[in-house]
Amino acid sequence: MARVLIIEDGLMIQGYLRRVLRVAGFQVESVLSGEEGLKAVREYRPEVVILDYWLPGANGLTVLSQLKLERPGLPVILLTANDDPEVRREALALGADRFEVKPIDPQRLLDVVQGVLGTASG
Fold this sequence. Notes:
The protein is of the alpha/beta class. Helices cover about 45% and strands about 20% of the residues.
């Protein structure tokens, strides 16, 4: 199954995302900051990234820009509690494949991840 990297500083959210994805058969790594996320993308070589907007240091949009420079084809799902239309517009303009708002239910999470991987069942 595909490798997923979660870049999320909220430990409860991170744990929830990890559990849902692992139960579904995904290989999952997670980190707490954008800087760690960029390093993990280089080392872990994920097939999809779930990226929080609010991170310590650089925000998710800054991290997204760097990810897309380094690995343009890497699917990135921006996951945030900030349902601001301007943030959504900017995230999609920077190359986010999906913009999802927390909380996200387990089936939606799996559908979105499978969708960006091109393996959605329909």
